[in-house]
Design a protein that fits this description.
This protein is of the alpha/beta class and 355 residues long. The chain has 13 helices and 13 strands. It has two domains: 169 residues, ATPase, nucleotide binding domain (Nucleotidyltransferase, domain 5, 2-Layer Sandwich); 162 residues, Nucleotidyltransferase, domain 5 (2-Layer Sandwich), CATH 3.30.420. 37% of the residues lie in helices and 23% in strands.
Length: 355
């Protein structure tokens, strides 16, 4: 069991909104408490080829999925290697979340591609990946995994809100934490924005020009998921079944759809954050109109994180999960995932080739 108190690692994250591959070099130190430093981060935008591959992979045969996982692992490894070489970084190991293709915890199944052995071989570094599967095997949701980082690295905030593909939150109270997915965020906003050939709605400029459709808003706010008790998590499959299937998605103009979803997201998040301070990170934190809608629906003190936290908090925390895995300490909490017990998730791969 390793109990070194300082670690230099590279964390890698790919979110459901397909905005790119986040790579961060960071350092963790433990004295009485954990401290972190982000040395440098970069987001590698996906090519159109990779966007199409990742967007449609769930429709392909399992043989194609397995082959793609290896190719994607090689892509991650190559980008990590270029990032480290360009900046002359020395580091101990790689921690990679991968990219989620399937997430069906009710069926005890989740899949994040990005083969760990392929990453290890490309970087010639020990690699930790596949963080979610063990928790799902223990009857958990396999999500969220970020709360362990919110506890140890961001303990000064009662609420930590991440505006990624899906909005998720950690709520700390009385030395306990609960965390769960709230609603779709960038995954649906970007889906709509691509209808006008843009990657995303910069600062909500398109949505603020539209009109909220009250009928669609009522349908959205009455989706059964929002009445469920946590633990709970969201997925691409859920989005396709409950939102993309709605007739209004095809009938309304993009600006009116966006206006409606901004109202929906703001309402669903705002009702959860009451008083105290909330730290907002994730790509959606750059969207001023989205943050405005959250603020309109909340009584909390809204704190937008610094840019390096907005962009790389999840990659940072998956790096931290890898540190805990190396130390053989629990990195997944049953109180937030609903699993049978706390666990120490993540597969460890040693490099056996250099190329």
């Amino acid at each position: 069991m390793s109990k070194i108190s300082e670690y230099s690692i590279i964390g890698v994250m790919s979110g459901t909104s397909l905005d790119g591959l986040d790579i961060v070099k960071c350092t963790f130190k433990k004295h009485k408490n954990w401290n972190y430093k982000i040395n440098k981060g970069i987001t590698i935008k996906y090519s159109e080829k990779w966007i199409n591959i990742l967007k449609n992979l769930h429709t392909k045969p399992i043989s194609v999925v397995k082959k793609t996982s290896i190719l994607y692992g090689k892509l991650i490894g190559e980008e990590v290697r270029k990032f480290a070489n360009k900046n002359h970084f020395k580091y101990d190991f790689v921690c990679s979340h991968g990219h989620t293709i399937f997430h069906q915890p009710d069926n005890n199944f989740t899949l994040q591609i990005g083969d760990g052995q392929a990453i290890a071989n490309k970087t010639n570094k020990l690699t930790i990946s596949n963080f979610r599967e063990l928790d799902v095997q223990l009857n958990g949701q396999g999500a969220p995994l970020v709360p362990i980082g919110d506890i140890h690295l961001f303990d000064e905030y009662k609420y930590c809100l991440n505006l990624g593909g899906f909005a998720n939150i950690s709520i700390k109270q009385n030395n306990q934490i609960k965390a769960f997915d709230i609603c779709p965020a960038n995954i649906i906003l970007n889906h709509i924005t691509r209808k006008v050939n843009l990657e995303y709605d910069n600062n909500g400029d398109i949505g603020r020009q539209g009109n909220c459709n009250k009928e669609l808003l009522e349908k959205l706010n009455n989706i059964a998921f929002y009445k469920q008790k946590e633990p709970k998590s969201l997925s691409r499959e859920w989005l396709e079944k409950n939102i993309l299937s709605l007739k209004e998605i095809q009938l309304l103009s993009p600006k009116n759809l966006l206006a409606t979803f901004y109202e929906h997201i703001g309402f669903q998040i705002g009702k959860l954050i009451v008083d105290h301070s909330v730290l907002i990170s994730g790509g959606g934190a750059h969207n001023r109109f989205l943050c405005k809608k959250i603020k309109e629906n909340s009584t909390a003190k809204i704190i937008i994180a610094e840019n390096h936290i907005i962009d790389f908090k999840e990659a940072l925390i998956f790096g931290f999960l890898g540190v805990l895995r190396i130390r053989e300490e629990n990195n997944c909490l049953k109180e937030v995932t609903g699993a049978l017990k706390d666990s120490c998730g993540g597969e460890i791969n040693q490099p056996f080739l250099t190329n």
